[in-house]
Amino acid sequence: MSLDSRLEAWVEAGLIDLPTADRIRAHEAARERPVARWAIAGLGLFAVVLGIILLISANWDRIPHGVKLGGHMALLLGAAAAHWHWKSRHRLWPAEGALFLFAGLVLAGIALQSQVYQLTGPAWHALLLWLAIAGPALLLSGETRLTGLAFSGLALLGPAAMAADSIDAGGWWRLAQGAAMAVPALLVALSFVLSERGPGFRLALREGGIVALLAGASIVHFAWASNITGAQAADNAVRLLPAALASAAALALGWQRADIPRAILLPLLAGPPLAFALALAIPHPDGMASRLAGIAVFMALWSALARGAAASGWTSLFAVSIAAIGLRIFIIYIELFGSLAATGGGLVAGGLLLVGLSWLWHRIVTRRKAAA
Amino acid sequence: MTRRPLLLAALALPALWLAAGIWHNERALSAAPEWRIPIEGYDPRDPLRGRYIQFAYAWQLSGDAALCTDPAQCRLCLGKAGGTVVATIAPAPAACAHPVDLQASAIDMRRGFGPRAETRFTSRIFVSETSAPLLEAQLREGPMEVVAAVTPDGRLVNLRLQPRGQPAG
């Protein structure tokens, strides 16, 4: 609905009078930006930059190594200097843009050296190096969501790639994999500790951590549909140790602060390690009982989150929790039933549960509105 | 702005690290002797993958290839015999003049089947879009060689591809 039609509807409903509507229209017209012109100019600029990049790429091996490495170093130092300059003058967005570019150029530099000197190795070596040398600047100077997301991405990506690549290695590698699993809770803990920093940066760390925690806790419950031996369970218990410690530390830090309501904080930080421990650190066969236990754990985690979110007014988390529960209910019939008739019965039962769930959602939202 | 020295250090860290990498690699390459090793395509004949041309080193191979089943356990000792490049398989650490570390050089060993079970060592080199078609055709049609440097830490770095016997340049 356009502004004009909405204003007309409000005037008709008697919410505002005609002069007010005209004043709003005039105010909005004065604030109007030439979006279309900017979009075309931006598209043109993007095409020019992309064209230059492609021209350079097409003739890449004809450019001497020294020119490539020197050019990159100049860009990197330029981005660092630009960030320093704008940060000193409190120009928030230019400084943030330069810092983001700086982080991207660090990865480009690692890739460039690998290509020029034919350095080889798993991708996570490069990603962890990226985190180690670009991470400190982001962590020290990032203020907005842009650099917060960049840092969260750096922190999650490299360790996750390392854990996935070394999953068959035992010994000390298990602790390294556990450290990778601890990253989401550490991001949440960092968002509590960096209290003097920009709210956007902290929010991005917290969101990155929460999304990774809940995604991990949801994925791990697939393990209920496989056979976990005693030896595997023992390995997983070692892996769980750093992750559980990080979650406990984040919980202790967050408990004293008002950033995340306690009703959400507890299931958010205690739930995922618990779901992991139950699914992977206790031996179980692949059977109907295990699968049902898995469903129960999944439901318990998301229900606790939904309850906390509803009580604290976190509507997005509440919606995501309900959607996760709904999705899981829908999947049950595929998992548990086989024949046509049983699948039909499963669909009817699953559908009824979903309808019931949406009714419950509606009731909670209505009650909250009434309470407000 | 608080913590200025810390931020300055954090901003300088990547440039210093990358500069140290360039210095280390340039030093290793400047001390590395260049080798001209004959190469050929190998089955499946798919030399161009992405932006990399793949090839097999066509050196004269001696020694027990079974040693390289675990690439960390073997080295290829490069040498020359009557104008031919010879690669001798030796257990790691090898006490030869020019040992090549397969892992550090990203060289794969491919063992053939049947009575002529040839063992080949394959590698790749990055080429640009404009030079790729010519190099790919040359590799299919004529004898080619790779100019490569062996660094002191055992990396065989492929520098360029050229028709076999082309004068140095």
Protein model, in words:
The complex is a heterodimer of chains A (372) and B (169). Chain A is mostly helical. Chain A has three domains: 65-158; 166-286, no CATH class; 310-372. Chain A contains 14 helices and no strands. Chain A is globular. The relative contact order of chain A is 0.05. With 169 residues, chain B is of the alpha+beta class. In chain B, strands 1, 2, 3, 8, 9, 10 and 11 form a seven-stranded antiparallel sheet that branches. In chain B, strands 4-6-5-7 form a four-stranded mixed sheet. The longest helix of chain B has 27 residues, at 4-30. The N and C termini of chain B lie far apart (54 Å). The model of chain B has no long low-confidence stretch (mean pLDDT 85). Chains A and B meet through helix 4, helix 5 and helix 6 of A and helix 1 and helix 2 of B.
Care to give the gist of this entry?
Chain A has 372 residues and is an all-alpha fold. Chain A has helices at residues 3-12, 18-31, 35-58, 65-88, 92-116, 123-141, 145-165, 173-193, 199-220, 230-255, 262-280, 288-312, 315-336, 340-371.
Individual helix count of chain B: 3
For the sheet with most strands of chain B, the description reads: 7 strands, antiparallel
Largest interface, Cβ cutoff 8 Å? A-B, 35 and 33 residues
Q: Summarize the biggest pleated sheet of chain A.
A: none
What is the number of strand segments of chain B? Answer: 11
Helix-strand pattern of chain A? HHHHHHHHHHHHHH
Radius of gyration of chain B: 19 Å
State the secondary-structure class of chain A.
mainly alpha
Tell me the Rg of chain A in angstroms: 26 Å
Q: What do the pLDDT scores of chain A average to?
A: 89
What is the typical, i.e. mean, pLDDT of chain B?
Answer: 85
